[in-house]
# Entry
Amino acid sequence: MDHTDVGLRAAIRALSDVVAPVVGPEHAQARDQLRLTIDYLAFVVERLPHLHQRDRFELSHHLAMAQTVQAALGGAAAPQLMAAIDAGRDVLALAGPATSEVRQATADLSAAISAVVRDSAAMEAPLRREVERRVLQASKERIAFERAWYQPLGLDPDPHDVRPLAEFLPASH
Amino acid sequence: MSMSMDLRDQPTEAFIDALRRRFPTERETDELLTRKMRRRAGPPYRQVTLDEMVGWLNAMLAECIQGPFQVRDPRWLTGGASKVQIAFELSWTAPERGPQRDRLVVRMDPSEASNTTSRVREVELLAAFQDLLPVPKVFWLDREARWFPEPAIVYAFVPGVAKPRNTGAGQVVGLGTNFGPQLREQLAPQFLQQLATIHTADVGAMHFTSMDIPPTGTTDCARWQLNRARRVWEEDRGEDYPLMDVAANWLERNLPRLDRVSVVHGDYRSGNFLFDESEGRITAWLDWERGHLGDRHRDLAWMTQREKGHLAEDGKTYLVCGLIPIQAFYERYQQASGLTVDFERLRWYQVLNCFQVITTTMATMYRVARLGKSHQDILLARLKAIAPVGAHELAELLEEVL
# Structure
């Protein structure tokens, strides 16, 4: 069984209990970065159990966005987008895909959607508008997810608006 | 990630040239970004010691000062996200002032910063406002990194704090700083009046070599700023983000015309001024490195961004930079400056600024931390958490216009 979380907690304790007390105020830069390092490790400990779920969320999210963009395009040819949709769907259907496979499928989907948006200047205005609006609407879920993901770092000015992370994550495998 | 992403770690001349041609911008900005990309494949930042900093400083001062001098009490300054800084005391005989003990600051670039800016521009802007605003006096500039490993300036240390000593708000200085009702009352008029001084300054009477003057009545000003942001996004990003392409499309289609050339501070907000807490007086405006000549709406849109302020005690009133209710802000600015606020142009710059914030936090900070190019990569990694905050605001703005 993996015990990376135990190792990380031990690292935090070592930095907090052993290192921090001997870094004097004359080492302002070291103290500042020590605090940031401890905070970041604590954030990683909290998110560690969800890393794989995050990858799957991002793939699902981009697949849904790609499909809605493809639907807007109708018969218009977007072979890169269609290929990315097919590949993304295949990876998502696998029982235990490698992290690298999931991330590559996600990257291919976002690249294909971005390419469609960048090329939309050549489309008729109503179609271009429809594509842009669909991307905008779909993006909201990702933004909400990322706000939830990073909330422990305490930098969101409206933390009460942030939804619980569990709302976004598929069941653990 | 795909091969094109690795290209950004080791960019070819063809990649660099293609971006230069695709996104023409101010000459100095072009030079700085080109230099950044040509150095990208170089080694990571090497942590320097305080002794090394003092050694380089002594070498510089030996050539800049006639007569004996002594550097005392050097110490690191922390707080900013982009520059390496130390404070020290200098005993020397200053021209026209005689024997002095001056408290000074060295401000040096890391190998690659979270924003690629020039010390020359910073020095020119500080000099231009020396007699008009509380700004630190610049003593020396190491423009070509002759003495220090990277370009650096030496300017006066100005006493003051960036946020009240007893506040829990704003983990990053300036983001959501809560001044409390009394300081708010004291600082807000100065904040507005000094902004008006910057925006109404006579650009024609000032001497700048590092900044291009955009022509009025054209969209060149907006185009340069948009191209700069888009170029940096393309240079630094680690992934595609379709929402950014939607934003870029809208910005391209709606470039506003410039009505008047103002000095734009570029990062005018709480956290970038120091103040005397007991007197409630602003003692210095810092961080002019994003400054340029252009549209005042860029500054107005920047300081009114959501994460730079907070709600007042009533839980309803949004305070711009924690100082002025948003409803009163534009009216008081127009009174202080005699300049108009065009809300359509303001919205364009709000969208651009969100694009810029996402670019900095999601693309540049990622790339710099990934390659170990700065003195505080851990802070840059942490600030990625700001990206969805900027994206949330961007989506809300685009919802209104698409």
Notes: The two ends of chain A are 15 Å apart (CA to CA).
